[in-house]
Design brief:
The structure is a single chain. It is built from 8 helices and 6 strands. The termini are far apart. A hairpin with a 2-residue loop joins strand 4 and strand 5.
């Protein structure tokens, strides 16, 4: 059975994931490193729990895999543009800063926070370029786009992180998780209307 798994991007959840990562790194880090660490956290969560932390979509770019919508938020958050992201995180040059904590991390489960903390600890002393090199050398789903970008699907990730016997089950679980997340998102939007 062929699935095309995608999540509805939850800016609040992605922002809380980024804020939590920043809080573990003295409230500031190179945005290239942050994007890579959030990708690695999602990849680990897909491996362990068949789900996504950030609900983002991914692309291969020259410097490795990118959490695409988070990258867009980073580029747009030099000033407060009214978004939830920009109320918590700002970009200055190549760094992102935690402007304020989101209050509570109610969109993140304890397991999601644990995975983010594990990835942060693993790469604590690594530079952004060390993480880029790690991604180039160790992530089979990344393809060199030669100056462009190439989508990385959840199925692409599952193919390289799961054994043959576990792939179908993982893809089915992620398809179900994405469907539930979309329904919950639509219900929340309807309640806000």
């Amino acid at each position: 059975m062929q699935y095309s798994i995608s999540f509805v991007f939850d800016e609040m959840k992605a922002t809380q994931a980024a804020c939590y990562l920043l809080s573990l790194n003295a409230g500031r880090m190179n945005y290239l490193k942050m994007i890579k660490l959030l990708y690695l956290a999602d990849r680990q969560y897909i491996t362990d729990w068949s789900n996504s932390i950030t609900t983002d979509c991914y692309v291969s770019m020259d410097n490795g895999p990118v959490t695409s919508r988070i990258y867009d938020l980073i580029k747009d958050s030099k000033t407060d543009n009214g978004s939830y992201w920009a109320s918590c995180i700002r970009t200055n040059g190549y760094d992102v800063f935690l402007m304020k904590e989101p209050g509570e991390y109610d969109r993140l489960s304890p397991m999601e926070m644990e995975v983010i903390a594990e990835i942060s600890n693993r790469f604590e002393s690594a530079s952004a370029w060390d993480v880029v090199k790690y991604c180039h050398e160790n992530l089979a789903e990344w393809q060199n786009p030669a100056g462009s970008s190439i989508p990385i699907t959840i199925e692409d990730i599952v193919k390289v992180v799961k054994s043959d016997k576990d792939r179908d089950e993982c893809i089915e679980e992620m398809g179900l998780a994405a469907s539930i997340q979309k329904n919950n998102y639509m219900n929340m939007q309807a309640l806000r209307s």
